């Protein structure tokens, strides 16, 4: 999973 | 950042501001579930701990700070400043029935068994059900002020727009996060009944009241 990407969402 | 994500964030922001202004202007929090607002404050607190560990963008940081600040301001208005107008008798949803299972689930099903990641997962799961005390309150009293329904509509619309954002990101970026998507679907589904009432009643100029 691309976990680091999700952190850019609020 | 795509159009669904941006409008989703703005819809979320609008919901938060609408609620704050409603309470501030009317000097009353009647009809508002303080429990739901405490849960949202908890959601933002546990999700945005990465403010201390990583910087993503100025937009990201500002929005997080605004969301957290507004969430605590709302809780303060309900439980301190306008406490006398808080309708605690109708706000009787047992939040431990949400927080305990959600806590357990976030320990069991997460992307990585680390404190920050578990707290992030907890916030995602909790957000999906945090509105239940508010919906429960409305079902108990059988009615909601029109401004409260605008708040709920914006809040539901925000997660629905995020679903489109995730579809977009899956097709154009090959990105998906199953935890966020499943929780987001659950969260949006919880609003469906309300969306129906909003469109059939509130948008036609009628007050939202449920049949006795």
UniProtKB/TrEMBL annotation, chain B:
Keywords: Cytoplasmic vesicle, Endoplasmic reticulum, ER-Golgi transport, Membrane, Protein transport, Receptor, Transmembrane, Transmembrane helix, Transport
Key word Disulfide bond present: no
GO molecular function: ER retention sequence binding
Sequence intervals crossing the membrane: 65-82, 119-138, 150-168, 174-199
Superkingdom field: Eukaryota
InterPro entries from the UniProt entry: ER_ret_rcpt
Keyword Endoplasmic reticulum tagged: yes
GO terms under cellular component: COPI-coated vesicle membrane; endoplasmic reticulum membrane; Golgi membrane
GO biological process: protein retention in ER lumen; protein transport; vesicle-mediated transport
Subcellular location(s) of the protein: Cytoplasmic vesicle, COPI-coated vesicle membrane; Endoplasmic reticulum membrane; Golgi apparatus membrane
Membrane topology listed for this record: Multi-pass membrane protein
Pfam families: ER_lumen_recept (PF00810)
Predominant location: membrane
Family stated for the protein in its record: Belongs to the ERD2 family.
Protein name according to UniProt: ER lumen protein-retaining receptor
UniProt organism field: Pundamilia nyererei
Gene from which this protein is expressed: LOC102215457
């Amino acid at each position: 999973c691309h976990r680091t990407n999700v952190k850019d969402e609020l | 950042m795509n159009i669904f994500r941006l409008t989703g964030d703005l819809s979320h922001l609008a919901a938060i501001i609408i609620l704050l202004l409603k309470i501030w202007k009317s000097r009353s929090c009647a009809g508002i579930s303080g429990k739901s607002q405490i849960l949202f404050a908890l959601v933002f607190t546990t999700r945005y701990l990465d403010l201390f560990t990583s910087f993503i963008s100025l937009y990201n940081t500002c929005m997080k700070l605004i969301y957290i600040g507004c969430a605590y301001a709302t809780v303060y208005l309900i439980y301190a400043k306008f406490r006398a107008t808080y309708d605690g008798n109708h706000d009787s949803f047992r939040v431990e029935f949400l927080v305990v299972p959600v806590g357990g689930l976030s320990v069991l099903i997460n992307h990585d068994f680390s404190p920050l990641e578990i707290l992030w997962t907890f916030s995602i799961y909790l957000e999906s059900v945090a509105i239940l005390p508010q919906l429960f309150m409305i079902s108990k009293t059988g009615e909601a002020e029109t401004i409260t329904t605008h708040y709920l509509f914006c809040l539901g619309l925000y997660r629905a727009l995020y679903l489109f954002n995730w579809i977009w990101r899956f097709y154009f970026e090959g990105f998906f996060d199953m935890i966020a998507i499943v929780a987001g679907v659950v969260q949006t589904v919880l609003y469906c009944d309300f969306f129906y009432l909003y469109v059939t009643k509130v948008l036609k100029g009628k007050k939202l009241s449920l049949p006795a």
